[in-house]
Amino acid sequence: MPGVENSWLTPGGRLLRRLDVFLSEPLRQASLEDLGRYRLLILIALCLVLLNGLSLLLLPWSPHPWVQGPVSFVTFGVNVLALVRLRRPYSPEKTALLVCATLALALVFISSVPDLPYSASHAMTMLLPAVSVYLVGARLGFFLTLPVCLVLGVLHPVRYTLLGSMPRQELVHLWILDVSAALFMLCIWAVSWMHASALNQARIAREQMLRMQHESEHKLRTLVENTDDLVCSLDAKGRIIVANSAMRDYCRDRHGWQALPGEPLLSPDAQNRRQVEHILQQVLQGQSVRIEDGSLDSNPPKVLDLSFKPVLGEEGQTIGVTLFGRDVTERREAEHKLTEMHRSLVDVSRQAGMAEVVTGLLHNVGNTLNSINVSVHLVTERIRASRVGSMVRAAELIHTHREALGRFLEQDPRGQQLPSYMLALSRQLVEEQQALLAEQRTLTDALDHVKSIIGMQQEHARVSAPVELVKVSQLIDDALRLHAVSFQRSGIDIRREYEPIPPILLDRHKLLQILLNLLSNARHALLDSERDDKRIIIRLTALPDDRVRIQVIDNGQGISPEHLTRMFTQGFTTKKDGHGFGLHISALAAIEMAGTLSCESEGPGLGATFTIDLPMQGERPG
Length: 622
Description:
Blueprint: H1 2-7, H2 13-18, H3 25-28, H4 32-57, H5 65-86, H6 92-111, H7 127-136, H8 138-162, H9 168-226, E1 230-235, E2 240-243, H10 245-255, H11 270-284, E3 289-295, E4 302-312, E5 318-327, H12 329-384, H13 388-400, H14 405-411, H15 413-459, E6 467-470, H16 472-482, H17 484-490, E7 493-498, E8 504-507, H18 508-529, E9 535-543, E10 547-554, H19 561-564, H20 582-592, E11 596-600, E12 608-615
Parallel strand pairs: 7-9
Antiparallel strand pairs: 1-2, 1-5, 3-4, 4-5, 6-8, 9-10, 10-12, 11-12
């Protein structure tokens, strides 16, 4: 940690570095905290060596040479030994304990000199607890300090009290100084212990934080390196701080340069260089920039989504840039294929719409053609059963007796019956003419409906519908008349329940188309039920919310509950030969008239009710 090491160098850092010559190589590689402890031990030992060496030199002039000499000599030797031990592979803790123990013994020995009564309260005594706690720990420091405190604070004043001849006032003063010195030594130990405990806790917390930081950095580094995305961090000058392997590979393969820490994020290509410089300027101004690099047309195709985002400092200023890149080649290819597929679907849907138009046209025209076929069949039968041939025979009879026509009419029995026969035959021919005219009107209406269906299907989505005032009850009768013969042949009883409804605005042909579909479906439901009392009820009622309701009710085979929700779905049918377009087209036609078409059934065999709800006032023409 260079920053922490430099803190030892200012001020006096060079001196502390010089102290490392007394340390063995393993001790020099210790942690900074232990290295500081060893340096302090060296400094204390050197100071004691210097002081004791000076004391030995001044020994001839000392007032107490028998005390100063042994203490200085022993202390000098022990500290020199400590310095020697630090250069050897010995335990530095034992060396520190030796130095502290020697200092404690020196203090005890000095305080035992009878001619130095105030030696126990010397300031040097404060050095022992402070140094011992720092060098050998709080526990050993306490065991070194406590005996010295007892000697200096208790035994030393007791000795002068019992054996000395000091005046009472000086004796009290001695007790105060010695006890205070002992208490202050304990206080210094306590303060040093608390300080050392705080430092130890801070060291443990720092180590835990560093360990967590290292683990987090390792996890983050592993995560960044293992991701396939490009990750790069830049400083405020656009130089690379860190780049993962994917980023390095991309820069090497794509742009031909190495993304190394400390290098600027600039491509050798001039155009790319200008683009990167412009992007970095924008990001350093606080903007986020996102671009795509590459093309599907390249070989191999490669498209990267690059995102440049600013890194903000504590005061909100931009201090760097982060670059994230993701390979979106597969996504772009999928989007390209999706676009092509969408285009194909549009073409298919257009063709399907055309097919639906044709299917609807054939279905609706087919229903009407069935009615036309019935009407044509009826006309054919009426013409075949016509009495026109009898009129020809009567005319031939008159022509045969034209020369004596009066006598023939008066005398001949056949001539007498001929006038009444001609009258009856004329009346019958008139009736046949009226019936044929009625069928001809039906055929005309059906053909008009076919024409309208074809016109609507040609427009498909109408711009303007032929809206007109329609009497709904009459339109229902027209639909019933188109199915009248098939109902009569199938033995189906038709019941009309009409409420008086005024004419309303609507599209006649669309409503007729719906009614024809519903009546045709009701007929098939009754035929499939094989019941004798086949019945269809057509009910026309006015609703209170200005709407009109038309219901087609049959007592046929009914509808299963699971089929009710699908009745108006395109392609769904319960008929064996059905195609599933009739009800779907009818529902769409009802919606186009701002109405609804719904279905109800209590279940199989219980019939069904189809309901058309239409607004009383439809859209007005023009």
